[in-house]
Amino acid sequence: QVQLVESGGGLVQPGGSLRLSCAASGRIFGITVMAWYRQVPGNQRELVARITSAGSTNYADSVKGRFTISGNNGENTVYLQMNNLKSEDTAVYYCFVGARWGRDYWGQGTQVTVSA
């Protein structure tokens, strides 16, 4: 079973930057979309950014202009560059990969804490 492994989370001060990485433990064929979600305890998991296999990107309004998603289908990796971080960005961030025939993959989550 292919697993997604995230890295790059941590503690950062407001205004700082972090880069999240996500890599698959094996090859995933037929990727259609890669994305990052985040979740705060007591809240639903929300979409932060997504990138399709064609390179089209979408962002949550709250992160537009600050976060950038990039991915490499061939290497099964996806990244999230987060700049000008705010306290409200504090959450557990999850990597997601969707592939053909209904195959979905989730990472285990990485904590991002923005605090002075």
Order of helices and strands: EEEEEEEEEEE
Unreliable residue stretches? none
Structural class: mainly beta
Average pLDDT level: 95
Topology:
Elements (H helix, E strand, L loop, with lengths): L3 E4 L2 E3 L5 E7 L6 E9 L6 E7 L4 E3 L7 E6 L4 E6 L8 E9 L3 E4 L3 E5 L2
Parallel strand pairs: 2-11
Antiparallel strand pairs: 1-3, 3-8, 4-5, 4-9, 5-6, 7-8, 9-10, 9-11
What does this structure look like?
The chain is 0% helix and 54% strand. The protein contains no helices and 11 strands. Strands 2, 4, 5, 6, 9, 10 and 11 form a 7-stranded mixed β-sheet that branches. Strands 1-3-8-7 form a 4-stranded antiparallel β-sheet, with no helix packed on it. The radius of gyration is 14 Å and the shape is globular.
Characteristic key phrases:
single chain; 116 residues; mainly beta; 7-stranded mixed beta sheet; 4-stranded antiparallel beta sheet; 11 strands; globular
